[in-house]
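Run folding on both entries below.
>entry_1
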Amino acid sequence: MRSAIIVVVLLLASSLPAFAQKPREEAEKQLKFGLTVAQHNLWREAISRFERAADIDPTYAAAHNNLGIAYEQQGDLDNARKAYERALKLEPGNDYIKRNYELFREIHDRAVRQNVR
C-alpha cells in the first residue's frame, strides 16, 4: 500500500510542470496582445493587458517590465518605477530590463532635478 501512495505522489509531482506552464502561457498571450496594441499607441489597453499578464503570473518579469514601459508612456512614473523594480527583482541578471530601468531612472531623475531648480 505504501508503494501505491508513493506512485501516486510521483505521478502528481511529474504532472506539476504542465500545470505550472498554463498560467505562463495565458500570461504570454496577454503580453503579446499588449505589445500589439502598444505598437498602435493604445497605452491604456496595453497597461490592462500587461497588468492581466502580471496578475496571471506574478513571476513573469517581462510583464512587469512592459508594464513599466507602458506606465512611463502614460506619465505614471511612480507605478513605472514599481513595475521596473519588480521586474528586476524577478530577473536581476536580465540586461534588457536593467537598461530599461537605468534609462527610466536617468530621464526621471533629470526631470526631478530640473523641477527642483
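>entry_2
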Amino acid sequence: MKPAKRAAINSSAVHVFDVLRTVSNDAKPAGVSDISRRLSLTGSSVFRALTTLEATGYVSRYRNLPQFELGTMPYLLNRALLNRFELNAASRPYLGDMAQETGETVSLNARLGWYSVRICGIYGSRDIYHRDRLGELAPLHESLAGLAILAFLPEADHLKMLEFLDETGVKKPSPAAWTQSKDKIAEARKTSILTEELPMSPGFSAVAMPVRDHTGTAIASITINGPVFPSDKIPKLLSIRDQLEALIAKSPKRFVSPFAHIPANKIRLQNNKTKLAL
C-alpha cells in the first residue's frame, strides 16, 4: 500500500475514534454539526465516522433523531472487562446477603491502580436504588469506596498516590481535606468500616468496608449506599464480609487483579461517573 493511501486510512480511523470519544464523553446526545465544530472536522468526515460506529453498534440514534449516544457495544465491552475480576462473580452471594439484610443497594468496588471501580451491584428491596452504573470510577481519595481501600494499603502507597496525582494533574485533596481523610482512615483501621452522612436521611450514614487479601491488604471494598449506620446490623454485615475474605484467603492467586502486572502509576483512567475507559 502506498504511504499516502495508508496515511489517509489511518487518518480516517483516528477520526472514528475521536468521534466515538466525543459521543462517549457527552452528557447528552450530540449531532453531526456539534461534533464537527468541536473536533474541527468536516461534516462529511463526522457523518462517515458516525455511520461506521452506528453500523458496528458503538453508537445509536437518540429517539430516531439525527443525534447520537453510545450504543450497546461499549457496554458489552465494559461488562466483559469487569467480568475479568474473579471477585465479581465470587462476591455476589455475599453482596446478596447484605442487600437482603439491609434492603439497600450493595456495591463491590475493586482497586484498579489508584482508582476504585464499581464492578458489581446488588439491589435491595427498598424503592430508592443506587443508580450509578457498573464501571463508574474515581480516584481512591475521592470516594467512600476508595477510602475504604486506602485504609488498608501501606502508608508508602498513600505517598505514591499523591505523587501520581501530581504527575497526572488529577485534583489533589487540600491539606485540610487530606487530614480529614486520614482521620477517617485511622478510624477505619480500628472499626473496619467507614461512614458517610446522608443528607436525605439525617442521623444516618452510608457504609463502606474493605475487602482484604490474605496479607491484610485491601483489594476491594463493599459499600452499602443507604442509611444503615448506626444500626445493630453492622456486626452481621462485617461477619458476611469476613466470609468473603476467608474465601479469598483460601485461593489468593485466584483473586489477584487481572491488571496487577501493570504498575499503578501506568493506569490512567477517565474520571467520570458512567464510563470506564482504559
